[in-house]
Design a protein that fits this description.
It is built from 40 helices and 16 strands. The strands form 5 sheets. The protein has a 5-stranded parallel beta sheet, with helices on both faces. It has a 3-stranded antiparallel beta sheet with strand order 1-2-3, with no helix packed on it. The protein is 60% helix and 7% strand. It is of the alpha/beta class.
């Protein structure tokens, strides 16, 4: 084997399996493997590596560099494995020559095909063996560490489907061999994860029926029937209905044939079972809920544990490493899975809590743990070696030839775990740790996240009682949300309710709603969410690495910025550190499960961890917390201003733009993407800055951010967001005694009402703003607001009032020499005249507005004027002239810096003319 993709992408070198370094190298190799032995064009590779039409100018040279580096890694300097396909002297594409035996995905599919052929010729034992061997090659999600690329995503999806089909075929083989009891737990987990797959449901029904559980088999069919009917409006397929009918009639032919000879226990096996080994598993949690997918993965892995009698030819120990943040349920899952698997390991189950993340405890020394294991396996205490290496060797020797399951719970790191792994092919180990033990050789990694909403509610039911939870379903869901769907927090919340049967769920909701005291409420007996987090945090406080203090400071200060996540550039501004040092600090927190990395530049903190971080932030001086928030908000405001300016370069922006370091944006596409990605965080930042306790500098940054966001939200019709931020801005401006900012915010608020067609509110709001501008003698503000007010009066049909307001605005604009304001005013005046049935006066205004718009380069209002002239002509029945002006307006709306949505308005306006003239409109 040379290439492995059934998990992280790995390449075998002279030193063993290794992952490629830079992400682009991994993507290149992954794409070539997806098209193994086929030429992939240079253009296709550029699109896969950088995205369609997004490759930099130097992309072709970069690709050549990546190919050269990949060849060096492959030891293929001559280019005989990674082959360049040329036309003349120019590379047209690349082809990776791969033998089937070199590539785990190809070998997997070969074995699956062999298993299917064995099933077809009625050799289920051979089929099961081949299919188990195929599934044992899986180490996790295909291409797990490769950045998304179209070819890789499609191939990963295909391979996952192949894996599921192989699992189904292997279960079919096991059922044919009479192993119906052994597959029941796996089938229950699979049907929960894939509820609509009828083949799996049918096998579950058959396994239940053969296990003497006819009623449960019939119930499994009813559950599927209800699900299909409610969700899809269809019935189960005829084969499944036929199976249901046969089970209902207790068809004896459905019972399994006698187990094959290989499945019958021999005397030696019976003797081994009589001499039972250690049984050290702690009790499984009766409240365990969900995790069906993870259990299915663990069970599939354990199916690969080899025969201890197979000697050197047997497979190595099966190893699963479960990681996740404190309280996410790693230990509970491992112990639950171990109990389900215990029968497969008759020579014993060893368990140890390694105290890697336990408050007040030091991590256990591997030598001490080995002593416990050896004594449990029958070694006299006086014969246990004092040297840890010798003890580890003796443990491996004892494990050889046995079927042992070892649970290494709560590990501090790889160095603590490595000596404790058995080496026998019939052995398996489950390891849990807050850190992802990436350097643990041969491990399949499972990362635990918080529970989905439905499983979180189910866990609450297990602890509190289904009757109480179902009596207050909304409150139950709110408790799970306030607990952040974290299993530990849910268990504590449930335990508090269970201990207080008179409490309605609403009482606990009220207590948890106060964020400042939530962690105090999530404490019961010896369980506490805060203590769980404290262990990981104190690891940095007591650490000796030079970057530990950066990680501590980052953890504390991240809590001062509100939002769903934080990007690397904003975090660098927050911490006032270079980007590389910031990234190092954040990645250290990710490794400790105190932070989540959604991609290479964005980081998310769980809600309860944020509360804990906020408590720890009190250790930072208040002036530093305020300065950090100010730096982050400055970065948001400056970048938002830069982005909207790029999107609308022709709009007159404030004379005093937001100052400070901004995220570099390369053009309109990057500006649009940044604003869309950051919008939830920007809205949260506005709300945070508007809190009454914030100092004036923070409040004013919030006002700047609102001004910038207006021109992103309004053209995209985000009415509710626009209303919310401007209402906050009005309150803030009034609190600061800043009438100018209040008037700007009122003007923005009117835009939100406009989008909601609430023109009376538009009028009231603008009249309040206009009054402030006149009191301040602020001509620029008055001119803008008067135009908007006249426009609103036209929408209300108050054309005479609109003319009065607009004529005053035009007088002021001409006195000030403000030609752009005159352009807008003439357009509004024309609309009012048209509303009063004065088309010639309207045309005069529109044509004058068009002339001034072209003179000033205002393409927005050039398009508006052409559109209004066209509409006015068509209302007079002058369709050729109307169409001519509409045709001129269409290309205007295609130019950068215009409202593209007006293309649709203009095309719609063309329709009457085209119908009358019996011609088609111009190109859209």
């Amino acid at each position: 084997m040379r290439y492995r993709v059934l998990g992280a992408l790995e390449l075998r070198t002279g030193e063993g399996w290794a992952s490629l370094g830079p992400a682009k190298w991994r993507t290149l190799l992954a794409v070539l493997l997806c098209h193994a032995n086929q030429t992939v064009s240079t253009e296709r590779l550029l699109d896969e590596l950088w995205g369609e039409d997004r490759a930099p100018q130097s992309a072709t040279k970069l690709l050549q560099t990546y190919v050269s580096r990949l060849r060096q890694t492959l030891g293929d300097e001559a280019g005989q494995t990674l082959i360049t396909e040329k036309q003349g002297y120019k590379a047209q594409g690349y082809r990776l020559a791969v033998e089937a035996a070199e590539f785990d995905a190809h070998r997997f599919e070969q074995l699956v095909e062999e298993g299917r052929r064995a099933l077809d010729r009625e050799a289920p034992e051979t089929a099961a063996e081949r299919l188990r061997e195929a599934l044992a090659m899986w180490r996790g999600t295909p291409f797990a560490d490769v950045p998304p690329a179209p070819a890789v995503t499609a191939e990963a999806t295909r391979l996952e489907e192949c894996r599921l089909q192989a699992v189904d075929a292997r279960i079919d083989a096991d059922l044919r061999c009479g192993r119906h009891t052994a597959v029941l737990g796996e089938l229950e987990a699979l049907t929960a994860e894939y509820p609509f797959r009828e083949e799996l449901r049918g096998r579950l029904m058959l396994a239940l029926y053969r296990s003497g559980r006819q009623a449960d088999a019939l119930a499994a069919f009813r559950d599927l029937h209800r699900l299909l009917s409610e969700e899809l409006g269809v019935e189960p397929t005829p084969p499944l209905c036929d199976l249901h009918e046969r089970i209902l009639n207790a068809d004896a032919s459905l019972m399994a044939a006698p187990a094959p000879e290989a499945d019958r226990p021999d005397p030696a096996a019976a003797a081994r079972k009589a001499h039972r080994g250690p049984r050290q598993l702690p009790p499984a949690s009766p409240a365990f809920t969900g995790r069906h997918g993870e259990i299915a993965v663990i069970q599939a892995l354990m199916d690969a544990a080899g025969d201890p009698e197979a000697g050197e030819g047997g497979r190595s120990v099966v190893l699963a490493a479960i990681d996740g943040t404190g309280g996410v349920g790693k230990s509970t899952l491992a112990i639950h899975a171990a109990h389900q698997l215990a029968d497969r390991f008759p020579d014993g189950q060893l368990y140890v809590d390694l105290y890697g993340a336990t408050a007040g405890q030091s991590a256990l020394d591997p030598g001490e743990v080995l002593g416990r294991f050896l004594r449990a396996l029958g070694v006299d205490g006086s014969n246990v070696p004092s040297d840890a290496d010798e003890a580890s060797a003796q443990f491996r020797s004892l494990a050889a030839g046995r079927r042992l399951l070892v649970i290494l719970d709560n590990a501090a790191g790889v160095d603590q775990v490595r000596p404790l792994i058995p080496a026998g092919p019939g052995c398996a180990a489950l390891v849990t740790s807050r850190e992802m033990l990436t350097t643990l050789e041969g491990a399949t990694h499972l990362h635990l996240d918080v529970l989905p909403q439905d499983q979180a509610v189910a866990l609450l039911e297990r602890v509190v009682g289904a009757e109480r939870v179902r009596a207050e379903p909304a409150e139950a869901e709110e408790i799970t949300r306030l607990c952040g769907w974290l299993p530990l927090a849910l268990r504590i919340a449930g335990a508090r309710l269970a201990a207080r049967p008179a409490w309605p769920l609403r009482t606990l909701v009220t207590k948890l709603t106060d964020a400042r005291g939530r962690l105090d409420e999530l404490r019961f007996g010896d369980l506490a969410v805060r203590v769980s987090f404290q262990v990981s945090y104190e690891g940095f406080l007591l650490g000796r690495r030079s970057d530990d203090l950066d990680a501590v400071r980052a953890f504390r200060l991240l809590s001062v910025v509100h939002g769903h996540d934080v990007s690397l550039p904003v975090a660098a501004a927050l911490l006032d550190l270079p980007a590389d040092r910031t990234e190092n600090a954040l990645e250290r927190l990710v490794d400790a499960q105190l932070l989540e990395s959604r991609d290479s530049v964005r980081y998310h903190m769980h809600d309860l961890l944020r509360l804990f971080a906020s408590e720890q932030a009190e250790e930072e001086p208040e002036v530093e917390r305020t300065a950090a928030l100010e730096r982050a908000l400055t970065c948001y405001a400056a970048t938002a201003q830069q982005a909207v300016t790029l999107l609308d370069p022709l709009r007159p922006w404030p004379r005093h733009p937001a100052e400070g370091p901004a995220v570099p944006l390369g053009g309109q596409d990057e500006a649009e993407s940044w604003l869309k990605d950051e919008l939830p965080n920007l809205l949260a930042a506005v709300a945070h800055a508007a809190e009454p306790a914030q100092p004036e500098a923070i409040a004013r940054l919030g006002l700047r951010l609102v001004r910038a966001l207006q021109w992103f939200l309004f053209p995209r019709a985000h009415a509710q967001d626009l209303q919310t931020i401007n209402e906050l801005a009005v309150e803030t401006a009034r609190r600061l005694g800043d009438p100018e900012s209040e008037a700007w915010a009122l003007d923005g608020l009117s835009a939100a009402y406009w989008l909601q067609h609430s023109y009376d509110q538009v009028r009231t709001t603008l009249e309040s703003a206009l009054e402030i501008w006149r009191e301040l003698d602020h001509r620029e503000g008055e001119l803008r607001t008067a135009c908007n007010l006249a426009d609103a009066l036209c929408e209300l049909g108050l054309y005479e009032e609109a003319i009065t307001v607009q004529e005053r605005q035009l007088t002021l604009a001409r006195e000030a020499g403000d030609l752009p304001a005159e352009v807008i005013g003439l357009g509004n005046l024309g609309r009012a005249h048209r509303g009063l049935g004065r088309p010639e006066d309207a045309l005069t205004c529109f044509k004058e507005s068009l002339e001034y718009a072209r003179r000033t380069g205002n393409i927005h209002h050039e398009g508006f004027a052409l559109y209004e002239i066209g509409i006015t002509y068509m209302e007079q029945g002058r369709f050729p002239e109307g169409r001519a002006h509409m045709d001129q307006a269409l290309p205007v709306w295609k130019r950068p810096g215009t409202y593209e949505s007006w293309r649709g308005h203009t095309w719609s306006g063309l329709f009457p003319a085209c119908m009358t003239l019996q011609i088609g409109p111009g190109p859209r």
